[in-house]
Design brief:
Elements lengths: L2 H5 L2 E8 L4 E8 L8 H8 L5 H9 L3 E3 L2 E2 L11 E7 L15 E4 L3 E6 L16 H8 L13 E2 L8 E7 L2 H13 L3 E9 L6 E5 L2 E3 L7 E3 L7 E9 L3 E8 L6 H8 L22 H13 L5 E9 L6 E5 L4 H12 L1
Parallel strand pairs: 9-16
Antiparallel strand pairs: 1-2, 2-5, 3-4, 3-5, 6-7, 7-9, 8-9, 10-15, 10-16, 11-14, 12-13, 14-15, 16-17
Helix pairs in contact: 2-3
Length: 340
């Protein structure tokens, strides 16, 4: 072991004060490196506590240095003694529910789920239960708590009627690391969709700002002064009335792919909110309308699937990449298009 490695070691003792429901961590700092802030030093050394969480504990007076209150910016020194008192996580107000999950990967830090269409990610107005979060609270019985509450950490979301891959953090450090990757746009998110018509050119980029729709505040749309949004697309196959597309998000706005394809004049097949269903039937022949009606019977939702998810594991540093094939409903529609 090098001298630097030896200096960066710290001695720690951990105990639980059951009478006050606090977990205590005592450590003696063993580093000579100058200008290291206490909050950043502790975040690097202690598992499952993010820097922001440590700062919050310091502000509440739950971190002391040599028995006295300390500031987050304090430069650490050799052999200083730190005591951290961590309150036990508060129970989640949400109810754990035994909902089946298609789990593609799981460890103590995070979980990757292949979400089915129809499953809401988080409880909200109109969906107080039966969500992915309720399912994760039931499945993940060992959650250490995020922000002082027993809950999973949502990094990104998928629309209720969009299927596909989703990563959820179990710890504060994992959430912080994953959130940075999504913010810096280094995480890989690739979708596949069946869209109306043929895009020109067959490969390109759609860039248009998104915000709340002025006509319907429950929906979003392309609006002047909205948030920057960009989607890259590539045509994989073309059929008489439709195209199979591969799409990559450069940003992660609500309903982004669905709105951008509608804006380009090629909405997602079956999308009831953004022009992909009955509004497209007018110009079709009788035979074409019968065929599209058959597709609608096979697919009661938008033909959009989050098929690829890749990121660097926020704790181990290993690159992880997952793929998910089309679920049965979209696969059946694609089969009919190929047979036609």
């Amino acid at each position: 072991m090098s001298n630097t490695d030896q200096e960066n070691r710290f001695e720690t003792q951990e105990s639980a004060d059951h009478s006050s429901e606090y977990r205590e961590i005592r450590l003696r700092i063993k580093t000579h490196q100058p200008d290291q802030r206490l909050d950043s030093y502790l975040a690097r050394q202690i598992g499952n506590l993010s820097r922001s969480r440590i700062q919050a504990l310091i502000e509440k007076g739950l971190v002391t240095l040599n028995g006295k209150p300390v500031k987050a910016s304090h430069p650490v020194k050799w052999d200083e003694e730190v005591l951290i008192r961590i309150p036990g996580p508060k129970p989640s107000p949400l109810t754990p529910e035994p909902i089946d999950l298609d789990i593609r990967y799981e460890d103590e830090h995070l979980i990757v789920v292949n979400k089915p269409a129809g499953l809401v990610v988080h409880p909200a107005y109109g969906h107080p239960s039966g969500t992915l979060v309720n399912a994760l609270l039931y499945h993940c019985r060992d959650l250490p708590g995020i922000g002082g509450e027993l809950r999973p950490g949502l990094v990104h979301r998928i629309d209720k009627d969009t299927s596909g891959l989703l990563v959820v953090a179990k710890t504060e450090k994992a959430l912080e690391g994953l959130a940075k990757q999504f913010k810096k746009k280094t995480a890989e998110r690739t979708y596949r969709a069946i869209a109306w018509g043929h895009l020109t050119p067959p490969e390109g980029r759609i860039e248009a700002p998104l915000g709340r729709s002025r006509r319907n505040r429950k929906l979003f749309g392309v609006v002047t002064g909205g948030k920057e949004a960009a989607t890259r697309y590539r045509t994989l196959e073309q059929f008489e009335l439709f195209s199979l597309l591969e799409l990559q998000l450069e940003t992660g706005r609500t309903h982004q792919i669905r709105i951008h394809l509608q804006h380009a004049g090629h909405p997602v097949l079956g999308d009831p909110q953004y022009g992909g269903r009955n509004r497209r039937l007018g110009p079709l022949s009788t035979a074409q309308r019968r065929f599209v009606a058959e597709l609608f019977d096979l697919l009661p939702r938008q033909a959009l699937h989050a098929g690829v998810l890749g990121f660097v594991h926020p704790i181990t540093g290993h690159t992880l990449r997952f793929e998910s094939e089309f679920p049965e409903d979209i696969a059946n529609v694609l089969g009919r298009l190929r047979d036609e």
